[in-house]
Amino acid sequence: MYRVFNGANNSTRSNSCIPKNGVSQISPKNYTNILKTVHENIDSYVCKKICFTGYVYRVLDLQDNQFVLARDMIVNSNSQTVVVGFLCEYDEAKNFEDNTWVQVTGEIYKGDYHGDMPIIKVTDIKSVDKPSQEEYVYPPDDSYIPTAGML
Question: Which of the following CATH numbers is that of domain 2-132: 2.60.40.3550, 3.30.930.10, 2.40.50.140, 3.40.1190.10?
């Protein structure tokens, strides 16, 4: 799993996903590899703590305490993007407007949103500036390993 957490398009090795105080940091470089891994292996990641940055994104059928912590993933050479992210639950979610950039720390649990879904129960959230670099993420790369592992 080392390769998964050192992420997509990562030309320099980083320790950004080595757990600090039991919390794994997700970076733009490994974001989609981790997103895909967690979605495919939910049970292996329940109770794992993660910290990552994105923007608040909502769709019509989310509850008042839910939002997607989203990033825009570039899907082709014409820079077309799609929204990807983790579903989050936070009692005060309504205090954060759509498109607000935030840093979230939370714990993964298995929930239901049109089927089994990893959901982040937010324990800490704070507003941050939109990144001037690494605003976009890229599809999972060849370092993606489709097996369960530890964050």
Answer: 2.40.50.140
